[in-house]
Specification:
Strands 14, 15, 16, 17 and 18 form a five-stranded antiparallel sheet that branches. The chain has a single domain, classed as Tachylectin-2, Chain A, CATH 2.115.10. It contains three helices and 21 strands. About 45% of the residues are buried. Helix content is about 5%, strand content about 40%.
């Protein structure tokens, strides 16, 4: 099964605004008052490659209604935030919680550096993931780092409701591999937090690379969506040639570190020119999804250059995943 792309792709492209003039990608998504709200990563120059967060609103047919002329959320250098990247968003109560990556030494991807002759900064500190809250996307409160010290973290998502009275989190510590850990390649882990922000504990591996299309690493994409068959997780997998694809899995409702079913094939992979050619070629990177009238809409970054969207019947996707139940 494959997701169906919208004919209007890319739904967001770089604009004339300096802060988002070279790339807009890796969008978070949420549904509110019948509109699809998108937070996206924006880059204004290749030399410094500082990312900020932009904000746009679409109707449920993916028609653009509003797009901010200024970033809604910017790095705070006083807190050693020199770039903020790859947001994910969930609503808990009346508050939106946003996980985002902090990069102390922003640097253009290798493909861009090689093309423009930009040296790689050395040494490069590990990226970490932080948490912020907002109620209106005008004012944000930073809550600080939430990932373990010395963990190389980029793909952190919150569950949109508590699990056993605690906050549930999926994360991907890239350097938790080898003899000291139960996996030898970067994998998706589950953890609890008693409060937000708070120390993550009770870490357990959820998904590790299994198929050839995800052999190098896997990472959470959009925050999980609760269905009548469990938590639906859209994630990304990377192969040995650094091609990024999207997969899907079902996690147990009460014990989401347990996988009920998992697709053996990707549900979305780079095929269109805007996915195959860009600042980082051959990338589809899902970070947000919403359900509109039983249709699942997945919003994703394409080639580290554009924001795009694809959709599928939620029932058909769940039925498809359920067919893998006995094979996992």
């Amino acid at each position: 099964m494959k997701l169906q792309r919208y004919g209007t792709n890319p739904i967001l492209q770089p604009s004339k605004n300096k802060w988002e003039s070279v790339a807009v990608f890796n969008p978070a998504t949420f549904l509110e008052n019948g509109e699809i709200h998108v937070l996206y990563r924006a880059v204004g120059d290749y030399e410094r490659y500082v990312s900020k967060i932009g904000y746009a609103v679409f109707d449920t047919n993916l028609k653009l209604l509003k797009r901010s002329k200024k970033p809604c959320f910017e790095p705070c250098e006083e807190l050693w935030e020199f770039s903020i990247e790859d947001p994910r968003v969930v609503k808990l109560g009346s508050t939106f919680f946003i996980t985002y990556v902090i990069t102390p030494s922003p640097c253009a991807p290798r493909t861009i550096r090689e093309r423009l002759g930009i040296p790689e900064p050395f040494p490069r500190p590990f990226p970490r993931t932080a948490l912020a809250t907002t109620k209106d996307f005008n004012k944000f409160e930073r809550l600080g780092f939430i990932t373990p010290y010395r963990a190389h973290e980029r793909d952190v998502v919150l569950f949109p409701q508590k699990i056993d009275g605690k906050y549930g989190i999926l994360h991907r510590p890239s350097n938790w591999i080898g003899r000291e850990f139960p996996v030898d390649r970067p994998s998706i882990w589950f953890a609890f937090a008693n409060e937000l922000p708070g120390r993550l504990h009770s870490h357990q591996v959820v998904l590790e690379p299994k198929q050839s299309w995800e052999r190098k690493k896997v990472g959470a994409g959009a925050p999980p969506i609760l269905t009548d068959r469990g938590w639906l997780l859209i994630y990304h997998g990377v192969d040995e040639n650094n091609v990024y694809r999207a997969g899907a899995a079902l996690l147990d409702e009460k014990k989401p570190w347990k996988v009920i079913a998992r697709s053996s094939l990707p549900i979305l992979e780079p095929e269109e020119e805007y996915e195959r050619i860009g600042d980082v070629p051959n990338v589809v990177f899902p970070e947000g999804c919403v359900v509109v009238e039983n249709e699942l809409i997945v919003v994703y970054g394409a080639a580290d250059k554009y924001c795009c969207a694809a959709h599928v019947s939620l029932k058909k996707l769940l039925d498809y995943l359920w067919s893998f139940k006995k094979k996992n």
